[in-house]
Amino acid sequence: MTRLPLALTMGDPAGIGPEITAGAWRALREGGTVFAWLGDPACLPSSLPVKEIETIEQAASVFSNALPVLPLSLPAPVRAGVPDSANAQTVIDSIARSVGLAKAGVAGGVVTNPISKAVLRRAGFPHPGHTEFLAELCHVPGREVMMLASPMLRVVPVTIHVSLREALDTLSEDMIVETGLTTALALKQDFGFDRPRLAVAGLNPHAGEDGMMGREEIDMIIPAIEHLRAKGVEVTGPMPPDTMFTESARQKYDAALCMYHDQALIPIKTLDMAHGVNVTLGLPIVRTSPDHGTAFDIAGKGIAEATSLVSALRLASVLSENRLNHKEGLPS
Predict the structure, then answer these.
(1) 48-to-51, 60, 68 alpha-carbon distances in Å
(2) pLDDT of residue 274
(3) pTM check: above 0.85
(4) Residues tagged in the binding site annotation for substrate
(5) How does the record describe its quaternary structure (predicted)?
(6) The architecture CATH gives domain 145-282
(7) Which CATH number fits domain 1-144+283-332: 1.10.3720.10, 3.40.718.10, 3.30.70.20, 3.40.50.300?
(8) Annotated binding site for a divalent metal cation: which residue ranges?
(9) How far apart are CA 2 and CA 319, in angstroms?
(10) CB 121 within 8 Å of CB 40
(11) What are the binding residues?
């Protein structure tokens, strides 16, 4: 089966996106993971061979010799390391067009280069980040779930881009259950696990210590775990967050369900920052991204590493194929 090409967004053109895009093409040009970049070719490194294409279907025929580009035009000049909200709409258009290609079935998935939420916000972008915008584009707002995945660990925060105070105020049994069900389905259809195993983190120190250090485990997390088990999900917890990420503990589950953003992201970025990939679950399309930001401070200096983007592209290709096989009843 021939894999469909992936759609890679431009990201913020003043960040390291153009550099890591070039690095990813050089790493993958002979490796079978074909992608087309949607952006302004003028902001790519001048040494990079580029071929403008009219449709993403043409990407495979040129990929080994040049980076296929579906061109977009930026209204303002790009200075590496100096973001400009005048270019925000083109950054947004790159995301929207990539999603459209995936929804139309001509792209195997969407891989997003890093954006600056602050820069987009100044231009009127109303979403907290990529994840929420993608859910709106796919007409499933509120169903999006963020996973960070690497060969060493997969983590899913139940609450995402909100303050810690707001996370504590909004966390609920229903949120935990819905996030757990979405994660279990994705582990089956996208990652190829026949019987996915979830581990649920406690919220409080020592997972509450039987209510001595907080009742959220008793009142909210344990009932959510019981609900998930009733739905047929293999799940353990609540586990003390300070011990559930050790090497021996990680062998006992396929993904960790965490209660808030940093509880999930600190362990995976500590263990495997270079190969971490952001995966959006709950969408009708496959979406991944590198597990880092725009890195304006090193943009244009030729030192940005493409490792995480390469991992994101490779994983998106695998997830796309697994999802298709799942729909057709074939082994992943």
Answers:
(1) 10, 17, 11
(2) 85
(3) yes
(4) 130-131, 269, 278, 287
(5) Homodimer.
(6) 3-Layer(aba) Sandwich (3.40)
(7) 3.40.718.10
(8) 161, 206, 261
(9) 14
(10) no
(11) 130-131, 161, 206, 261, 269, 278, 287
